[in-house]
Design a protein that fits this description.
Blueprint: E1 2-9, E2 12-17, E3 20-26, E4 46-51, E5 56-62, E6 68-73, E7 78-84, E8 88-94, H1 102-111, E9 112-113, E10 116-122, H2 130-141, E11 145-148, H3 157-164, E12 168-172, H4 179-187, E13 211-215, E14 218-222, H5 236-240, H6 244-247, H7 267-273, H8 279-294
Parallel strand pairs: 3-5, 8-10, 8-12, 10-11, 12-14
Antiparallel strand pairs: 1-2, 1-4, 2-3, 4-5, 6-7, 6-9, 13-14
Bound molecules: guanosine-5'-diphosphate, magnesium ion (MG) and zinc ion (ZN).
């Protein structure tokens, strides 16, 4: 039988097939051809499984992925797929509590492989001001779709629904930004919410596994809140390509595969220096490149780098 993984906890996967949910395990210890990741299966994966009884099964194979959202797993020192096969990533951020963190959004964008992205800024009842507002507006100028909502005051949730109808969408973002609250509002579910203060309770999350939820023509995957996100193991050039303002100007760099870090005659560095490219975006990029170094030598032009998928440019044209 074929089905889709809607939840996975401790190697037990809930697989939806023929309007029914089967509790499945992987047949044997390993899944064929899948061994270079922290987890062989993620929510959104299509699998083939054998029914062992009316409600249980054994997973034999993971079917080909059309895309994925991955991050670097520090503990496992390898890439981890958070969600597979979505039509849209909804990156949720908040105006405050926790503070607006644009560099987190930059990293989410760089972790998407072949997926479109919608940036949702929640908690619009708290006002975004000054440089934070400018930095948020920059995403729009760069061509990203953005939407300001408040789950608490139910502002613009109808617009959000319009943008995600008839799609499989994954909500990702820092813990506490309001992912589960938004999802509960629009699906009428009752996922656990509330933000455990990072200061007092590091590492505890209210949502600690991904889950696919449906209602009518809405399909939403809620993902665990994370404090930090590290970009998956990719080449620096691929990460640079997740910055539209770099892509647009990189032809003028002296080097073909310029990483815009220390190469001579780099157009991007020049543009940062003369203020044509936002310096915080560039700093954010450099931090990602630094984090690749911490991941070890494997990424350096490595031939076993499996990621061939290209970053998807925003739809709108840059000014
Ligand atoms: N002020 C305000 N608080 C919100 C809003 N949406 C959610 N919250 C609160 O933010 C906290 C974290 O929400 P939660 O949905 O658990 O965040 P998640 O970790 O991203 O799933 C909860 O205490 C919510 O009540 C909003 O629009 N405005
Ligand atoms: Mg949550
Ligand atoms: Zn360059």
């Amino acid at each position: 039988m074929k089905g889709i993984i809607i939840r996975g906890i401790n190697n037990i996967y809930n697989v939806e097939a023929e309007n029914q949910i089967f509790e499945c395990r992987i047949k044997g210890k390993l899944l064929n051809d899948v061994n270079d990741e922290y987890n062989p299966l993620a929510v959104g994966d299509f699998v083939e499984f054998d029914k062992t009884n009316e409600v249980e099964g054994q997973i034999i194979q993971r079917l080909e992925r059309k895309n994925s959202f991955r991050r670097w797993n520090m503990k496992g020192k390898c890439n981890q797929t958070v969600v597979a096969n979505m039509d849209l990533i909804v990156c949720v951020a908040s105006c405050g509590s926790p503070p607006f963190r644009p560099r987190f959004i930059d990293r989410v964008i760089a972790s998407c492989e072949n997926v479109e992205i919608l940036i949702v800024l929640n908690k619009s009842d708290i006002k975004l001001q000054g440089w934070e507002l400018e930095r948020y507006n920059l995403f729009k100028e760069l061509g990203y779709e953005t939407l300001l909502v408040s789950a608490k005051e139910k502002t613009n949730l109808n617009l959000l629904i319009e943008k995600i109808e008839n799609k499989v969408v994954a909500f990702v973002g820092q813990s506490g930004v309001g992912k589960s609250t938004i999802i509960n509002e629009i699906l009428g579910t009752s996922q656990r919410t509330s933000y455990v203060s990072e200061k007092y309770d590091r590492g505890r999350h209210t949502t600690n596994y991904s889950i696919l939820l449906r209602k009518d023509n809405l399909t939403i995957i809620d993902t665990p809140g994370v404090r930090e996100i590290m970009v998956p193991h990719r080449s620096p050039v691929e990460i640079a390509d997740s910055f539209p303002e770099f892509v647009l100007n990189k032809d003028k760099c002296a080097f073909n595969m310029c990483t815009h870090t220390s190469e001579p005659d780099c157009e991007i560095i020049k543009m940062v220096e003369n203020g044509e490219i936002n310096s915080d975006r560039y700093e954010s990029y450099l931090r990602m490149i630094d984090s690749l170094l911490l991941q070890g030598p494997k990424w350096k032009g490595s031939s076993n780098s499996t990621s061939k998928a290209r970053y998807k440019m925003p739809n709108k044209k840059l000014k």
